[in-house]
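Entry 12.
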Amino acid sequence: MRRIEVRCWVSKTGKRPVKEWIAALDDSAFLKVDKMIGLLRELGRSEALPHTRYLGDNIWELRDRSTGPGYRIYYTWEGNTLVILLAAGTKRSQERDIKIAKRRLIRGI
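Predicted 3D structure (tokens):
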């Protein structure tokens, strides 16, 4: 099985908002999010279910299934081995974060 490469979306000014969001998490939250990304990296498209969900418009949601705020990462696939992390947040900010992910995907990877 090929390992999946995971990158963060980069703005035209060089900012990486998802990377910044991850870096600002406390240790416990960081470990949860790191585990989520690790699952995606190791399992790929279909085998990461039930942790992933297709939202449409080439955007997927990676969900933390443990207790807590319900961390979410929104991403897209480029080919079969590259994932671009577009946006991130919690269950509470889900609607806003999905809109951000869609805008970033439209702007380009």
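Annotation: Strands lie at 5-8, 52-56, 59-63, 71-78, 82-90. The longest strand covers residues 82-90.
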